[in-house]
Design goal:
Elements (H helix, E strand, L loop, with lengths): L2 E4 L13 E5 L2 E4 L2 E6 L11 E5 L2 E4 L2 E4 L11 E5 L2 E10 L4 E5 L2 E11 L2 E6 L3 E4 L7 H4 L12 E5 L10 E5 L3 E3 L7 E3 L2
Parallel strand pairs: 1-4, 2-5, 3-6, 4-7, 5-8, 6-9, 7-9, 8-10, 9-11, 10-12, 11-13, 11-14, 12-15, 13-16, 14-17
Length: about 190
Amino acid sequence: NALAVMSVSPTDDTVNYDPKCVIDDTYIFAKYYGVAIFGINSMEDNDSVVLTLNNTEIVSEYTCISSNASSGIYAGFSINVNGGSLNGTYGIYAPGYGVYNLNGVSVTASIAGIQIAAGELNILGDTVIETTNVNSGTYNSLLPSTGSGPGDICGAIVVGKAGSGYVGDVDVNLVSGTLQAPEDGDALVICD
């Protein structure tokens, strides 16, 4: 990970239990995860662990932004992406329950612009989310064989759970923005 924003049990008073991280006008390159966020094990409190990226460019050979599901133990966070761009195999891999806000960001991914399995996704402004590839095979054949991880379903937005470790509902609110896929590709995929 280039950057990890996380909280640990409140019984360990040497660790910040209420981390807030703001990154402005920055370039991040990562081989695997550009930014990873881990919440406080709460599906009600999404304000204790907060990551805000303003006009930040993330380029990753795998995933630009990611959370972690682990049956809900890392739930409870907010990610705010305002402007900037994400370019990777996955723009955002969102298995953990939290709030994902995108406003005016450009997301380009070879597989999934955003793949969400739990939480609330809010897309605002002139956000553009794009996949550059087309699905080959049935959706079920493209799910991860282990029941965990992002799988290989191409789409600007992919909504669905690959296994039982993804707790919580999924809400997608596309207020404004653009979803793009190549000819014969899928802009929006919903599977569960």
